[in-house]
Each structure stands twice: as C-alpha cells, then as structure tokens.
Amino acid sequence: MRLEEVLAEALKIVKPTQADESLLKNVIGEMENILKDEISRIDGILGISLEGSAAKNTWIRGREEADIFIHFDKNVPRDEMEKKVIEIGFRAIERAGGKPRLMYADHPYVEGVVNGVTIDIVACYDVEPLKWLSATDRTPYHTRYIIERLKPGQEDQVRLLKGFMIGCGVYGAEIKVKGFSGYLTELLILNYGDFINVIKNAANWKPPVAIDLERYYRSTKEMLEIFRNQPLIVIDPIDKSRNVASAVSLTKLSEFILASKLFISNPSLNFFKPQMEKPSVENLKRLSAERNLLHIFFKLEVERPPDVLWGELKKSEEGIRRALERLGFKVYRSGSWTDETESCLLIFELDTLKLPNFAIHKGPPVYLKTAEDFIEKWSGKAIGPWIQGDRLYVLRRRDEVDVVKLLKRELDSNRVAIAKGLASLIRNAKIDHEADGLIRSAVDNPSMLNFINSFLKAKPPFI
Amino acid sequence: MRLEEVLAEALKIVKPTQADESLLKNVIGEMENILKDEISRIDGILGISLEGSAAKNTWIRGREEADIFIHFDKNVPRDEMEKKVIEIGFRAIERAGGKPRLMYADHPYVEGVVNGVTIDIVACYDVEPLKWLSATDRTPYHTRYIIERLKPGQEDQVRLLKGFMIGCGVYGAEIKVKGFSGYLTELLILNYGDFINVIKNAANWKPPVAIDLERYYRSTKEMLEIFRNQPLIVIDPIDKSRNVASAVSLTKLSEFILASKLFISNPSLNFFKPQMEKPSVENLKRLSAERNLLHIFFKLEVERPPDVLWGELKKSEEGIRRALERLGFKVYRSGSWTDETESCLLIFELDTLKLPNFAIHKGPPVYLKTAEDFIEKWSGKAIGPWIQGDRLYVLRRRDEVDVVKLLKRELDSNRVAIAKGLASLIRNAKIDHEADGLIRSAVDNPSMLNFINSFLKAKPPFI
Q: Do A357 and B291 touch (CB under 8 A)?
C-alpha cells in the first residue's frame, strides 16, 4: 500500500465518528452539570474544567475518556483537598450511574465508567505557572497550551501518532509501559508539524534526543547536562525545569525509533493494528520446546493501584534477575504480567536450568597474608588449590545445581531484592520450569496466554 | 621437626657423597682427555672448559652432569662451529662408551650418558664480555663469577635451594617448567647469603621482584621500566642488559613464594621429597567422577628436541583453550604431558561438555543503518529480534552443542591457533571426554598416569 492510502485507512481506525463524539460530549455535559452542583455547596473550590484528550479533541476512537479537574483555592490544605475530591468524585459518579473507584497517581482521584466513557475526577490547585503546589496543577496549562497551538487538522495527526504508538506497544507513560504520554505525542506533532514528519525524524534519532519547543535552553548540550541519563528530553513548554518524556525508557524509545524506520521503509496498516494471532496451546508448546523458562506465579491478597503493583513487579523482576545472574545463570530475557487485580506472573529465560557440578573459586594472590587461610579453608573440601598467575584457585563442588531450589534458597534467606509488598507472596509462589504446565494453567486466561505467547515470540508487534 | 633438623636431613638428600663426587670427577677427567685429543687436530679451537654445576661444585645428588665447552676462535663462522662441535661431540662420547644424541637449545650441542653421568658438549666463542657472538658465550663468565664469589659452605646452600625447588616443582628454566635455572639459584644464594634467608625473603616477595647484585641500576623503578612484564628480574652480573630470570613465569614465581611461606610456617622434609602416592585406577576414577575433562591424545611421528616439543604443546594448549572459550565453554584448567619421544596428551577441565541449546546474539543499536539488515538476516531463523536498551538481540538455536564435535569442527576449519608442527597430528588426534577410557589407556604408562593423577588433584606438590 502507498503511504497516503495507509494513512487514510489508519485515520479510519483512530478517528472517532460523529456518533462517538456526540456520546462523549453528552457524558461530559452531564458530568459537568452534576459536578457544578456538587461543588456549589463546598468552600474553597473555584470551579471545574475539562482536561485531557477530550478537551484537546485528540482522543482516539474506542478510548473515550474525560478528565474533569476540580480547582481548589491554594489555601485549602492538601489533606482537605484530597478528602473533598474523593467525596465529590464518589457522589458525582454514583449520581451519573457509574461505579466509583479510588485511584492514585501523585494524589488520589476518582474513576468511573459512565455510558462507556471513562471519567476521572481529579483535584488541582489554582496557581500561577511555576508556583505549583501539586503535580496536577500544570495540567490546565498543558491543555491550554495545546488547544491554543494545535492547528485545524493537527488533532488527527496526533490521533495517527497515538494509534501508531499503541499499535507498536510504546504508548503510555505508566510503569507497565514506560512509553509516551498523550501530552508528549501532542508536543511532538506541534514540533514536527504532522504524523509522517514525526516518524521521519524519529527514524533518524540517536539517543539521547532533546527537543525544546519554546527554546528555553541555549543548546542541546545544556539540556543533556541538566537532564542526565534521560534518553528522550522534551522540555515542558510551561515549565522549563520539567522533562515531559522523563518516563520514556531507552528500550521504548528505541522501539519507537526502529518502528519509525521500518514504517518508512515499508508503510503498512499493521503498525496501527498489529496482527496478533490467538495463541493455541500446541503452538505455545512448540515455541517453548527446549527453552529454559523459569516462571513464578502468585496471587495477590490486597489490591493496589496498577502503577504501584507494576512498580513492585518490575523491581522484583529486576531483583530476581540479578539474583539468578549472581548464582551463575545467564538471564537472556525476563518479563512480568498481571491482570492488575488477582494474578501475577514473572518469566525468566535462562541459558540452563542446572549449573555445572563444579564452580571455580578465585582465592587471594599468593603474596597476601590471606593466602594461607585460603589453603587451610579449602584443603580437603575442594579440588586444588592450585596457582594460576599470582592467584590461588579451587574447584568446589556445588551442593545444589537446580535453578528452582537455588532461587528458593536465596528467597528464603532474604538475599533477593524484591519489592517489600510482594516479598511473602513471591516467597510462597509457585516457582517452576515446566513450560507445559504454565501454558495449561493459562488456557482459560486470554490475557495471561497472550503474555506467554508474546514472551515466547520475543518480538515487538511491529517486527 | 625443627628447622635445623629439616635442613640437616635435606642436606643428606641433596649433597653428593664422596663416592658420587669421585665418579663424576673421573668421568670428567676422562672426557677432558678425550676432548683435548680430539680438538688438537682441528683449527680454530682455543681450548675446552668445564662449566655448569660440576665446575661450581653445586650439583645435587643423583643429578650428576658435566657441561664441557669447546672454545672457538671468534673468526670461525657459525655454521662451521656448529658442524665441528657436532663431529667432535659425537666422536668423543662414542670413544667414552656413550651413545651420542644431537640436542638443540640456542644452537646444537651433543649429549650422552657416560657411567651414569650426563655429558653435554657445547660450543662457545671466546669473546670479551658484552661482545657475545652466541648465547653460550656468557657461560664461562657465569661460571667464573660464581666460583670466585661462593664462600665455603655456600655450595651446600645452593644445593638445598635447588633441592627445595625440585621438590616444589619450580626448578628448571626449560619451557616444560618455566621455572628457576641453576645459575639463578646460585645468584639468589649470593644475594641472600644462605638457603633459609632466600626462603624468608621470597616468602615476602610481591611480584614484580627485582634483584641487582652488582648495583648496575639506580632504582627498582628503572629496572621495572626496562624489563617490563617480567615478574622476576635478576640482573646478570656479567651483562646488565640481561634478566637471568626471564624464563620464570608468574605462576612458577608465585608457587615458589607460596612454598616459601608454607615452609617458614611449617618446616618439613616434604618440601624436598614430596610424597607422591602411586595412583591407582580406582582412585583416579573416583577423582574424575562428574568432572568435565576433555582430552586430546596423539602420537608423534618425528622426534624433536624437548624444548621445541614443549613449546609446540604449550602453544597448542593455549590456542585450544582460547578456541573453547570462544565457543562458549569455561576452561577451568588445562595441562600438557609428553614422554618427549612418542606420546602427547592435552587435558582441559571445563564447566560443561554441552553448550545450552540457545545462544543470545547481540545485534546493532537501533539507530544504525545495519539494524534493518540484522532484522532481515534473523527473521524466521531465530527467536526475536527484540530490543533491550538501544540494541537488538536474537536467541539462536545452536546447530551443535557437543564440545568434542564443536572443537573438531574448529580444528578442521583451521580456526584454532595450534603449533604448525602439531597441526595435522592434533587434527587427527583422539579427542574425547571419557575420563575412564583415558585412565585405562594409561595403566601401563607410569609417567602418563602420574600426570593424569596430578592434573586431577590440581595441587602443587608442596600443598
């Protein structure tokens, strides 16, 4: 397909219909009326505003959502503000017929689904720029910045970029993804003009990449010095001290760069809706044959906000990875999955499931005092010691070589850096290397089965 | 045992008896007479001299040997000198009833055993110091230097040091050992006074160590700069540009340091005559159980001087070691053995005999042009590619995982840096990992069996 055709078809996927739009506008109108009524009885609230993609006309089809902000006077104490937004949010969503749920990002907010539209009711302080009291105070300024600058037609360019990023698996600033936020996609469109120009530029990025729409900084060098170790730096136009892309990991940035290259070489609708076959048990078994897959499965006991849970999972995955490397295994890859409410799964692909029977153990150089202690310590308990170069070595027989038993021992003696909140769950988890058993146990869980499938394929959706 | 008793007993081991001494003197006298007669008929020869331990009265019991040097005029061309010393040597040894053998160090010499005494007939040029024409020209000056300076009683101190070094496996400058020469032991005794003082000092050495008896250099720093990467530097008193200890490897130096420490801590006669039990097949099988031992056995077709053969073996051992590491194995240890005439054996102790089925393969960073080629190259042929950080990776299935087959393939395609002289022998060698078979095949070969035993024990004799 030619590029123009691909973009025309892609736009059909990402652009809401008139009916979608009316529905969203109606739900928002209803929520605004309810909220205006609710806040009228409460002191310290200055008004409400619509923020996010609905306000900017950049939401994409099927992801209708409305962020409604309640503006507090800056003299209202933080805890009172939090208490009030929870109360108002719960009542408002219930009045609209939704089921309110307490969420937590930088501070608490209330979420509910009303007529298929996700509503987030969020508190912020009404402050002047750079006098932020809470993390959400910038949002109304972000919204205004984008609305004032997006030219007619650029909303759809934002939608194409979001759709491309969703299709390629790099959209979302949450810990689960560590990718691109909605605001970031809008700034990229403002900076490069349209979708294809973003892609053409990204295809030539070499991290670190720095973008400064308002030219706050004199040079890229200056930005790199201030925002060290950040692969993508996009200076917030309303706050020069903030990197809008701080959540973007090097891996996700690299995936976006590569996806952009491949799209330029070979434009295709697949980048917007990747073909993910429904994995069959037979296929998964074939894919996992002869591979060394350690997995850890456990159930949650207490629910927590998704970002908290994903943070714990990623930290634990990294800690277990390091523990396995320390034990002598090579960890080729690892991955985490959760349904965010009940079950969690960590998978590690290893070079082997059993360590060699003997391990080499390096002792001190012969000229140190400790050389004699080393000989005394190991004599009769190991092969050697011998001397190679200026050092002593022994070959010691491992008392355990099985990865499951070794990892359990490390976990039991608290030598693995896992998240505190998951420590006892992981210690009591099912730890196993039978891929067939894992696949069978996931048969009735499409989300888990999909994760296992994409872990086994080990390919981003755009390749 | 107290130190004094140990030294008294050790001296009995290393010091020749009056009968030993008479025998050696008689053989030397006979050889000198024969040689004087032989050279009288030949032009360009200025005389003969006794060199080596017999001349310096520092040989040790059971190692009776006489180095007789034939001094050539410096105008005799090198090839003529070589031809003449071979002719004279062969005739002289035959006349004395021995069987002459052509040897080769820096240049050819003739060896034979007469009445149990090893006779070496060597050529040198009669030149002034520092005007050396061949490597052996220094020897008469070495001999004179030692004879003039060794005080009565110090000869026995040299004998103790040689005996200690033999017992600890560090004596001998030849490639097989890479240890201490006789001349080096004599210089150490001159420098430190007596055996126990050498040992006490060596116990505190930290390589690199530099000794300069004639104080040719201003500082240790200066010597270390000139003799770079040499762990032990002993400046030749008759030639300041030469390191007498240049053959000493870091490993052998370290073994000597450690042996000295252990002897000081616990003086024992074992350092002079290590207890080596005769290895039984059962013991060897027990020792090798569950260990991963790759061995290469082959027979020589052409005889060569021991130092040449050992050089080839060590080079090949190192090349195969590197090839195995490159293939993905860890080589814990390796060793070579030969009877110097017929059979050769190389052993490698590995972490495993089979590589994992899958190997990780690191591709280019996504921002390079080659990223797309990498994807094209591996798509469908490997698991992945995926992105981690800024790079592409795949997991590829190995087509061969067995160490014997992998090594044979490397050898067949000439990718192993083995000595040219052994290349075809090693390519056609018996390469196997069955330790039991190796042990059985060595049952009637005590030298090979001893090597296998000490390889399996992986301990120097003094530990």
A: yes
pTM summary value: 0.86
Residues in chain A closer than 8 A to B456 (CB atoms)? 383
- Do A387 and B351 count as a contact with CB atoms less than 8 A apart? no
User: Would the pLDDT of A105 be above 80?
Assistant: no
The tens digit of pLDDT for each residue in A187-244 reads 999 999 999 999 999 999 999 999 999 999 999 999 999 999 999 999 999 999 999 9
Say whether A250 and B367 touch across the interface (CB within 8 A): no
Burial of B438 (0-12, 13-18, 19+ CB in 10 A): buried
User: Which residues of chain A does B283 touch, with a Cβ-Cβ cutoff of 8 Å?
Assistant: none
Yes or no, beta carbons of B395 and A332 under 8 Å apart: yes
The answer to whether the CB atoms of A365 and B254 lie below 8 A apart is yes
Question: Which residue in chain B has the smallest CA separation from A351?
Answer: B356
Window from A291-305, A359-373, B101-115 with minimum mean pLDDT: B101-115
Mean pLDDT for back-to-back runs of 10 residues, chain B (463 residues): 94 96 96 96 94 97 95 96 95 96 87 94 96 95 98 97 97 96 98 98 98 98 97 98 97 98 96 83 92 97 90 98 97 97 97 96 96 95 96 96 98 96 96 94 93 95 93
Best probe of the B interface among A178, A201, A254, A288, by most B CBs < 10 A, is: A254
Judge: A463–B379 Cβ closer than 8 Å, yes or no: yes
Say if residue A276's pLDDT is above 80.
no
Closest CB to B207: pick one of A379, A390, A397: A390
Complex ipTM value: 0.93
